[in-house]
């Protein structure tokens, strides 16, 4: 184990894509949220599953003075290691046993249930959109072959796990039930925050005044649904619950304001920026649609 040092190491996060802003993977956004909740700086790079430890995205490279760079994969293991090295706080340290159990149950619901329902939607129901995004760096015709291999591997996993044994409409019902119950938790959490007259903008899924580990996971899955064209059903369901979008939007505004808000049209953004220079009144109306202006 590397010795702890008062000098913070350099952290490079490999996200799978070089595009700035949010990526489709909920686990990447989960890890970014944990880093940003703590104000821990990092550098974002694309990377590749072919060179990643365990063949998984995301992964990080931790560089310390006088030590060889260390590569770590799996979002939960990365977070655990950074907590162990006192680079991230333990968000669940002050939770009681019941709250810890609720937090673990929420994370398991999202990462061990919803993840597979969303994988089915992306890889089976919207295969070509998912293939061309996930494998966009691979040229044709090789992308066709690799895509078929990825599809077969994914569907084999989903069948063995159990999801692919159900019909599409049945999976839609399971998925909506999860989001409906998440929404109920967030409605209650938002009400409790309003009742305390706390001026802090964010509210958290367990109803406390600080995030828990479940919040990073939940935010990642909300963003994964909201920005992916390969998940239109999930996006429609999430948008049907205002408390879910409100929860994510508040986290975005406080911790991810440098990223483009999901659902915004870039042409509208550019138009508002130009008109902003000409009219103060137009700037005010633009903020209705492009709030970060």
From TrEMBL:
Key words, A-Z: Transferase
GO MF entries: transferase activity
Top-level division of the source organism's lineage: Eukaryota
Domain Thioredoxin-like fold: residue ranges: 26-125
Transmembrane segments: none
Pfam families: GST_N_4
Keyword Transferase assigned: yes
Gene Ontology cellular component list: cytoplasm
UniProt key word DNA-binding: no
Family from the record: Belongs to the FAX family.
Protein's recorded name: Related to glutathione S-transferase
């Amino acid at each position: 184990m590397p010795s702890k040092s008062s000098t913070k190491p350099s952290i490079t996060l490999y996200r799978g894509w070089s595009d700035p802003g949010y990526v489709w993977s909920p686990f990447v956004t989960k890890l970014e949220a944990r880093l940003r909740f703590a104000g821990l700086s990092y550098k974002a790079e694309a990377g590749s599953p072919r060179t990643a430890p365990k063949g998984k995205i995301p992964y990080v490279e931790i560089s310390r003075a006088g030590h060889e760079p260390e590569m770590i994969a799996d979002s939960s293991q990365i977070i655990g290691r950074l907590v162990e090295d006192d680079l991230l706080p333990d968000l669940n340290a002050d939770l009681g046993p019941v709250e810890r159990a609720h937090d673990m149950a929420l994370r398991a619901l999202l990462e061990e249930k919803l993840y597979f329902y969303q994988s089915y939607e992306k890889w089976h129901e919207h295969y070509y959109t998912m293939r061309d995004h996930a494998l966009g760096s691979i040229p044709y015709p090789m992308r066709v072959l690799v895509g078929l291999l990825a599809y077969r591997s994914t569907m084999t996993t989903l069948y063995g796990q159990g999801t692919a044994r159900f019909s599409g409409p049945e999976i839609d019902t399971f998925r909506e039930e999860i989001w409906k119950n998440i929404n109920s938790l967030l409605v209650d959490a938002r009400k409790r925050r309003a009742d305390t007259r706390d001026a802090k903008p964010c509210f958290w899924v367990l109803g406390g005044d600080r995030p828990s580990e479940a919040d990073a996971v939940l935010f990642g899955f909300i963003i994964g649904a909201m920005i992916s064209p390969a998940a239109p059903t999930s996006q429609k369901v999430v948008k049907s619950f205002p408390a879910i979008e409100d929860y994510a939007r508040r986290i975005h505004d406080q911790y991810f304001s440098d990223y483009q808000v999901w659902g915004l049209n870039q042409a509208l953004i550019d138009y508002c920026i130009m008109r902003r220079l000409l009219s103060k009144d137009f700037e005010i109306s633009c903020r209705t649609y492009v709030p970060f202006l």
